């Protein structure tokens, strides 16, 4: 088995940095696309509702103030783990995830790069961050 040398570690670190930069660019691009987002009055349960357009389906807002998003789940490693879901329309949202929610599916790594449906609440819109309340692999539904 080959031992990792400094050059190998340097190359791996560069790949991680480039992946983080790409993720930041995708997130900023998504945030710029939120021009049709409207604020909901504070007396409602939802903190953010996206106004639907005819040509782009949007995540489902449920009556309880939760948001349902389906797409590809991805984990980015950058000093700590960052979880993201990317919809079929290419919108990426960061997901705050309690690992207990992923135990029935084998943990977060078992869900990495799979299609999932996440139900959660938006806790920040700059950048968009979703606090997950449940997660289900789409093949399991």
Offer a concise description of the structure:
The protein has one domain: Nucleic acid-binding proteins (OB fold (Dihydrolipoamide Acetyltransferase, E2P), Beta Barrel), CATH 2.40.50.140.
Describe the protein in words.
This protein is of the alpha+beta class and 141 residues long. The protein has a single domain, classed as Nucleic acid-binding proteins (OB fold (Dihydrolipoamide Acetyltransferase, E2P), Beta Barrel), CATH 2.40.50. Helices cover 22% and strands 37% of the residues. The protein has 2 helices and 8 strands; from the N terminus they run αββββββαββ. β5 and β6 (92-96) form a beta hairpin. It is globular.
Percent of residues in β-strands: 35-45%
Largest sheet: spatial strand order: 4-5-6-8-7
- Assign the CATH topology: OB fold (Dihydrolipoamide Acetyltransferase, E2P)
Order of helices and strands: HEEEEEEHEE
Structural class: alpha+beta
The overall average pLDDT, rounded, is: 75
User: What CATH first level would be assigned?
Assistant: Mainly Beta
Helix content: 10-25%
Shape: globular
User: Which blocks of ≥5 consecutive residues have pLDDT under 50?
Assistant: 35-57
Count of individual beta strands: 8
Number of helices: 2
Radius of gyration: 17 Å
The main sheet comes to: 5 strands, mixed, barrel
CATH architecture: Beta Barrel
Distance between the termini: 41 Å
Could you name the CATH homologous superfamily?
A: Nucleic acid-binding proteins
Number of domains: 1
């Amino acid at each position: 088995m080959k031992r990792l040398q400094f050059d190998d570690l340097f190359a791996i670190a560069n790949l991680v940095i480039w992946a983080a930069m790409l993720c930041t660019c995708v997130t900023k691009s998504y945030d710029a696309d939120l021009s049709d987002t409207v604020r909901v009055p504070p007396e409602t349960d939802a903190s953010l509702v996206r106004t639907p357009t005819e040509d782009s389906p949007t995540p489902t807002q449920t009556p309880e103030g939760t948001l349902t998003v389906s797409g590809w789940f991805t984990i980015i490693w950058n000093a700590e783990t960052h979880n993201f879901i990317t919809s079929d329309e290419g919108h990426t949202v960061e997901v705050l995830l309690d690992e207990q929610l992923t135990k029935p599916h084998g943990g977060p790594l078992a869900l990495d790069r799979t299609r999932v449906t996440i139900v959660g609440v938006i806790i920040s819109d700059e950048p968009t961050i979703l606090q997950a309340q449940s997660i289900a692999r789409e093949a399991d539904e």
